[in-house]
Amino acid sequence: MECFSCRMNRDLAQLPAAERVAADEHWRVAHCFDTALPGWLVLVPRRHVTSIAELTDAEAATLGTWQVRLSRALRAVTGCPKTYVVQFAEKEGFAHVHFHVIPRPADLPADRIGPRIFGHLGVPEDQRVGDQRRDELAAALGAHLAGAEPAP
Ligand SMILES: [Zn+2]
Motif Histidine triad motif: where (predicted)? Predict the structure, then answer.
C-alpha cells in the first residue's frame, strides 16, 4: 500500500499549500498536519526510503542546505531563535523518512524543551494549527525561501 508521503509526493500541483511549502527534484517540504505548534515542518524525500542510509549521494547533497534554509525561514517568519531537527520515521504508516524541522519558540514551556517538543505533535483536532493558518504559514515560508540568499 502506498504510504502517506508517497501519496502526497505523487502530484505536487494537486496539493494544498501546506503540503508543498517548497520542493526540488529530491525533497518536498510540508507543514505538519497534526501539530499545535505553528511552523512545524517536515522535509520528505521524493522517493520512498525508510532509512537515511538509503538516500543517494544526490539526495544527501542538498539535505543539509534544506535543513539550514528551512531553519532560517522559520526564524524569519515565526521569530523562533532556533530550530530542532529530528528524524525517527517510527509511527505506523509513516516509515517514509521525514526530517522534522521544528521552530523552537523563545517562550517554549520548560516541560516541552528537547524531545518533549513532541508533546505538540499528534494532538486532538481542536488543538491543531488550522488548515487556513497552515496554508498562510506555508505561503510566507515559501516566499522567504524563494527570496533567500544563497548560503555563504
Ligand atoms: Zn513513501
Answer: 96-100
